[in-house]
Amino acid sequence: MPGIQLYDKLLQFPLFQGVGRGELMQIISRTKFNFMKFPAGKRIAREGDLCKNMYLLMNGTIKITTSADNHSYTIEEHLGAPYMIQPECIFGVSPFFRSYVHAQTDVSIIAISRKEMMNLSETFIAFRMNIVSFFATRTQKHLNRIWKHSPTTTRERIALFIISHCSHPAGHKTIKIKMTQMAEELNDNRLNVSTALNAMQADGLITLSRGVITVPKLEKIIQFTE
Known about the structure:
By secondary structure, this protein is an alpha+beta fold. The chain is built from eight helices and eleven strands. The chain has helices spanning 3-10, 21-30, 114-123, 125-146, 154-164, 179-186, 190-202, 218-225; strands at 34-38, 43-45, 53-59, 61-67, 74-80, 83-85, 100-103, 107-113, 173-176, 207-209, 212-215. The protein has a seven-stranded antiparallel β-sheet, covered by helices on one side. Strand 10 (207-209) and strand 11 form a beta hairpin. The radius of gyration is 20 Å and the shape is elongated.
């Protein structure tokens, strides 16, 4: 990938925003980038795989599938470039992918190894501050969500359940869950859950089929909760 094109692509990601042109050109010339391509349908990562790289989705669309610990339900998210694929998995006490990641269309990805990430952080202060800011912001959003007023209706609890289980607060989502399991997760009864889900469908927030809840745009559900 030519340097100028790579320069423009990297600026789309929060890790490189605010980095001066001169520094970014140094990063491009000194950093070992692994350029990867995956055809539609190809698996990119598997749940439980060791995450050795920061993966930057440069082109195309991916599908991320995350399951409950007991595999009683799954959530599929469809995400387009530019997107950082589970960046938190590269560091910490559990550096493993939490989800299955597949190419939904033909995709291009840049992988940056953990070692290269550390080198960039040590050498370029703007890059280091971007990493700190990125993870601090994610932590703050998570803490703010915990301390929000608890939902009082079944419909509000369903909305919060969907939002809190998605890694990206926008776009198309598919939740594969039985009505009885949803009721159990919400500590509610099946009738109340069914009534609330059908009301959400009537309002155009979701569509229902057997064992599947499809969310065309998560943004609409988020607006409902605000």
